[in-house]
Amino acid sequence: MTSPYLAPVSDWYAENARDLPWRHPGASAWSVLVSEVMLQQTPVIRVLPAHAAWLARWPSPASLAEATPADAVRQWDRLGYPRRAVRLHASAQLIVSRHGGQVPACAGQLRELPGIGSYTAAAVASFAYGQRNAVLDTNVRRVLARLVTGEGQPRAAQSVTELRLAESLLPADGRAAARWSVGVMELGALVCTAARPRCTACPLAHLCAWRERGCPPAPAGRAGPAYEGSDRHCRGRLLAVLRAAGGPVRPSQLTGAWDDSGQRARSLAALIADGLVTRCADGSLALPGDGPS
Question: Which of 24, 162, 184, 290 has the smallest C-beta neighbourhood within 10 Å, fewest atoms?
Answer without folding.
Answer: 24
